[in-house]
């Protein structure tokens, strides 16, 4: 069971790192955090690929700080409730995705599968890269792998 510290509700950095509180879900916080990323994706989807990419870059860089600071403050590397990385990983998965709820669901499933199973190089990054960068990197890699699969599916369907 996820034990979210009280600071999630008092500290703006922790609140953001916990995905606006979605990471405080008692079970499957990564999945709940990914679900919480969908409304933001719907707001980003109409943007040009350039601006969508800028948002991905900025949220990734901010995420390194948010996740690292929250992890340091809590004294726990990559606490399960830190889900900003899931937000960014899902948004990366959905870069240039076809429109429609079917693709939103496919992207969600693909990202969660890669994030949970962690094939190489995701597993390597998860184990070997420390700090905020490490917390973000494994989800960025999962997002890239899910993005590649989603684009291949879109190419054929």
Notes on the protein architecture:
By secondary structure, this protein is mainly alpha-helical. The chain has one domain (7-156). Helices cover 71% and strands 0% of the residues. It contains eight helices and no strands. It has helices at residues 7-10, 12-17, 29-44, 49-74, 84-93, 101-117, 122-128, 131-156. The chain is globular, with a radius of gyration of 15 Å. It starts with 6 loop residues before the first helix and ends with a helix.
Characteristic key phrases:
single chain, 157 residues, mainly alpha, 71% helix, globular
List the helices and strands and how they pair.
Layout: H1 7-10, H2 12-17, H3 29-44, H4 49-74, H5 84-93, H6 101-117, H7 122-128, H8 131-156
Compute the number of structural domains: 1
Helix residue percentage? over 70%
Tell me the strand percentage band: under 5%
Number of helices: 8
Separation of the first and last Cα atoms: 39 Å
The major beta sheet can be summarized as: none
Low-pLDDT residue intervals, each spanning 5 or more residues: none
Structural class of the secondary elements?
A: mainly alpha
Q: How many E strands?
A: 0
The SSE order reads HHHHHHHH
Radius of gyration over all CA atoms, rounded: 15 Å
């Amino acid at each position: 069971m996820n034990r979210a510290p009280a600071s999630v509700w008092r500290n703006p950095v922790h609140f953001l790192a916990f995905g606006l509180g979605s990471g405080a879900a008692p079970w499957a916080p990564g999945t709940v955090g990914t679900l919480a990323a969908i409304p933001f994706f719907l707001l980003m989807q109409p943007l040009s690929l350039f601006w969508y990419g800028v948002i991905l870059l900025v949220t990734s860089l901010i995420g390194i700080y948010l996740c690292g600071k929250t992890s340091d403050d809590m004294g726990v590397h990559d606490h399960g409730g830190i889900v900003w990385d899931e937000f960014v990983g899902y948004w990366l998965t959905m870069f240039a995705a076809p429109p429609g709820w079917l693709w939103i669901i496919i992207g969600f499933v693909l990202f969660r599968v890669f994030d949970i199973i962690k094939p190489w190089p995701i597993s390597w990054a998860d184990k070997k890269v420390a700090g905020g960068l490490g917390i973000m990197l494994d989800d960025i890699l999962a997002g890239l792998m899910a993005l590649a699969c989603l684009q291949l599916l879109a190419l054929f369907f």
